[in-house]
Amino acid sequence: MIEFSAESRFIVTGASSGIGEGIALALNALGASVIAIARDENRLENARKKAKNPESFFTVSKDLCADLNALPDFIKSLREQYGKFAGMAYCAGISLLSPLRSYNQESAQKVFDINYFAPIQTAKALLDKRNNIGAQTSIVFIASIAARICDKSQLIYAGSKAALIASAKSISKEAATLKMRVNTISPADINTPMTANLAAMRDDREKLYPFGFGAVEDVANLAVFLLSDKASWITGQDYVLDGGLG
């Protein structure tokens, strides 16, 4: 059984809804202290109200892309306020459907900023020994199966997630020398508030899955395992969750 103490502190980005919220609530329910980060303060507060242990569910409203170069200092400030971290689940991200003929550098930059550059900057800061607990510090990045399937019109989104997966594997080899772990999770279609509003997409795609669309809990359960010491021999891996799609 996975259990955490309140002294086990985890950063969760994108924590105001969907997968990020699910991971934040799951960690908190198992006893961990969670620093939940997202842009929308009201939605963060709604997530906190769902927490099993709200006294150890801390919310921080932050636009991670407002100043990418300042993210290491931001993580440092969180450590100074809450204490050293046992890990992070980076879940913040955006999707974009854009065929090559519609390629726009500004749009591509926005996607890469939140899907790639922000997670790399936060990982850099978190793996600084001044900000973590040392051995068994664990980072989980939420990537996407899009990086493997690479459907049409996903050149920017799929590219950002493929870059994240490759870089995470490289980072894991650096982190391993310090006994710290880095893994990625690549979900396929997951039932979230966003997909719930896309009835046409659901009708078109759900039949592709023998087990239907995934649930947020499916991703959260794996993320919690990878963040825990039960996964102490696992690093540098990309876990595909596809409900039989492949």
**Helices and strands: which structural class?**
alpha/beta
As residue ranges, the low-confidence spans are none
- In CATH, what is the homologous superfamily? NAD(P)-binding Rossmann-like Domain
Note the run of SSEs as H and E: EHEHEHEHEHHEEHHEHE
* Percentage of residues in strands: 15-25%
Count of beta strands: 9
User: How many helices does DSSP assign?
Assistant: 9
Number of domains: 1
Largest sheet: 7 strands, parallel
Q: How far apart are the termini?
A: 30 Å
Average pLDDT taken over every residue: 93
Give me the Rg, rounded. Answer: 17 Å
At CATH level 3, the topology is: Rossmann fold
CATH architecture: 3-Layer(aba) Sandwich
Strands of the widest sheet, in order across it, are 3-2-1-4-5-6-9
What labels describe this entry?
single chain; 246 residues; alpha/beta; Rossmann fold; seven-stranded parallel β-sheet; two-stranded parallel sheet; 9 strands; globular
Q: What this model shows, in words?
A:
- This protein is an alpha/beta fold and 246 residues long.
- The protein has a single domain (9-241), classed as NAD(P)-binding Rossmann-like Domain (Rossmann fold, 3-Layer(aba) Sandwich), CATH 3.40.50.
- It is built from 9 helices and 9 strands.
- It has helices at 18-29, 41-50, 71-82, 105-126, 146-149, 155-176, 193-196, 199-205, 216-227; strands at residues 9-13, 33-38, 57-61, 87-90, 138-142, 181-187, 190-191, 214-215, 238-241.
- It has a 7-stranded parallel beta sheet with strand order 3-2-1-4-5-6-9, sandwiched between helices. Strands 7-8 form a two-stranded parallel ribbon.
- Helix 4 (105-126) packs parallel to helix 6.
- The protein is globular and about 50 Å long.
- The model has no long low-confidence stretch (mean pLDDT 93).
